[in-house]
Amino acid sequence: MAEIKMKLGNKLPRTPMPEQEPKVRARNFKEVPLGYTPEMAQAEASRCLQCKKPACVKGCPVNVQIPEFIKLVCEGKFLEASWKIKETNALPAVCGRVCPQENQCEAQCVLGKKGEPVAIGRLERFVADYERNSGELRLPELPEKTGKKIAVVGSGPAGLTCAGDLILKGHDVTIFEALHEAGGVLIYGIPEFRLPKAIVKKEVEYLEKLGVKVEVNAVIGKLDTVDELLQEYDAVFLGTGAGLPVFLRIPGENLNGVYSANEFLTRSNLMKAYEFPEYDTPIVKGKNVAVFGAGNVAMDSARTALRFGAENVYIVYRRSRNEMPARAEEIHHAEEEGVQLKLLCNPIRFVGDENGWIKQVELVKMELGEPDASGRRRPVPIEGSNFFLDIDTAIIAIGTSPNPLIPSTTEGLDISKKGTIIADEETGKTSKDGVFAGGDAVTGAATVILAMGAGKKAAAAIHEYVLNK
Questions:
Q1: Residue 183 · residue 204 · CB < 8 Å
Q2: Which residues are within 8 A (CB) of 155 and not within 5 positions of it... i.e. 6 or more apart?
Q3: Can you tell me whether residue 353 is helix, strand or coil?
Q4: Is the pLDDT of residue 282 over 90?
Q5: What are the two backbone dihedrals, phi and then psi, of residue 451, each rounded to the nearest 5 degrees?
Q6: What is the pLDDT of residues 225-266, one digit of tens each?
Q7: Average of per-residue pLDDT values in the chain
Q8: Half-sphere exposure of 304 (CA within 13 A, CB side)
Q9: Distance separating alpha carbons of residues 359 and 353, to the nearest angstrom
Q10: How far apart are CA 285 and CA 308, in angstroms?
Q11: CA distance 153 to 266
């Protein structure tokens, strides 16, 4: 019987998600995928084989009970499906949009061995949106208060997840956010067309309804130190992310027109430059834009530059397409919209005009040699292959590192050579008693769902710590 069902599941095609047309969406900031209808969601859910030992759950860093929520979708119980996800994941509308499911839960789907896996992420997005739009928000029953207080520093995915789990365990939780809006990288880093900010706000509001307190404009390390927080709170979780940009360190990088992806995206997203003239935030609007890097942040920067009216947008990457770290879907969307890939090219220097503005970048062609420490083939310059590309804007998107403010103001907190906080992978415990950490502040820039997984593990460890303190 199971064999017959597996054959049937493989024969059912994966349900495509409607999207805005590339030429239309490339000039607006509305969300690109339009989402499933109830009929589409049920059709896709019907492909799930309901495996007795679901590998997909093991592939999820926050252990969503995937077959169970999909079964509810199949039965048309969309609200119940959303509530099922929220038993382990406080941010389903976010995860359904920005998590790399193709490398995690969907990568483990049995159907993917001979065909296309179940579209778990799309179904997660559908049920989360269905609940939000229905107005039937259900709050779980909270346990009796333990009398313990926990401070969460940073309101990105790690901090929000940690806070959500701790409030459900009966503790009082306060989030301290340095910026004027909660959400961390979800607010300042990911563009509106990929993750609408109204959705992030709703997810934060959900936690507030559970009882989580959120203090914005609270720069820990300046306003209060971690040691001062420990005088008032029983434990502290550091989920401060990795917001310090890394640059190329090549000549001409100080020219006007050269920006970090952090600054460019923060101006557009957090400070809402995309909503001009309602928000009059200054932002570069180049005609010929080169983005250096090939991760999701690079794709976000390139696609944002297009929407600000650029005529040519280039992704410059020193390796080949196979090594590009961005999600396949993001690369596909970028190319559809008109972003041009300059692969196996490495920048040597930026060239400026007489007024100090960038006008060109000198590139050298590369070829791939033996694998390096990352497992990817090392790019090697091809002698005599240098050429120039005319640009008026350069956006550097080659990575970020943690801000040194908290480590520099917290005695006894061990950090790595890269500036990341050293913490136990399973518990988030740091070298300082009562202080836990997780997410990009520990791993360096990574994915939303991995940060959430770290927040979840830390919450369990903090719960045990404060009760046995």
A1: yes
A2: 175, 177, 182, 183, 184, 204, 214, 239
A3: coil
A4: no
A5: -65, -40
A6: 999 999 999 999 999 999 899 999 999 999 999 999 999 999
A7: 94
A8: 31
A9: 6
A10: 6
A11: 20
